[in-house]
Amino acid sequence: MFAAAVGCARAFTRSGSRNAALRVARLTTSATNKPVQQKNKVKQQKVKRRSTTPASDRITSASEDFSQWYLDVIRESDMVDASPIKGCMVIKPWGMSIWDKLRATLDDRITESGAENAYFPLLIPQSFLSKEAEHVDGFAKECAVVTHHRLTEDPDSGGLIPDPAAALEEPLIVRPTSETIIWHMFQKWIASHRDLPFKVNQWANVLRWEMRTRPFLRSSEFLWQEGHTAHATEEDALRTAKEMLDIYTEVVEGTLAVPVVKGYKSANERFAGAEETYTIEALMPNGWALQSGTSHFLGQNFAEAFGVYYQTKEAKRELVWATSWGVSTRLLGAMVMTHSDDAGLVLPPNIAPVQVILVPMTRKNDEEGTATVNALVNNVVTTCMANGIRIKVDDRENMRPGAKYFEWERKGVPLRIDAGPRDAATQSIVVTSRVDNEKRTLSITDKHLAETFHHMLSDIQTHLFAKASNYVHEKTYKVDTYNDLKSRLDQDDLGFFLAYWCADDELEKRIKEDCSVTIRCYPSDKQTELEGKVCFYSGQPATHVALFARAF
Amino acid sequence: MFAAAVGCARAFTRSGSRNAALRVARLTTSATNKPVQQKNKVKQQKVKRRSTTPASDRITSASEDFSQWYLDVIRESDMVDASPIKGCMVIKPWGMSIWDKLRATLDDRITESGAENAYFPLLIPQSFLSKEAEHVDGFAKECAVVTHHRLTEDPDSGGLIPDPAAALEEPLIVRPTSETIIWHMFQKWIASHRDLPFKVNQWANVLRWEMRTRPFLRSSEFLWQEGHTAHATEEDALRTAKEMLDIYTEVVEGTLAVPVVKGYKSANERFAGAEETYTIEALMPNGWALQSGTSHFLGQNFAEAFGVYYQTKEAKRELVWATSWGVSTRLLGAMVMTHSDDAGLVLPPNIAPVQVILVPMTRKNDEEGTATVNALVNNVVTTCMANGIRIKVDDRENMRPGAKYFEWERKGVPLRIDAGPRDAATQSIVVTSRVDNEKRTLSITDKHLAETFHHMLSDIQTHLFAKASNYVHEKTYKVDTYNDLKSRLDQDDLGFFLAYWCADDELEKRIKEDCSVTIRCYPSDKQTELEGKVCFYSGQPATHVALFARAF
Question: Model-level pTM?
Answer without folding.
Answer: 0.90
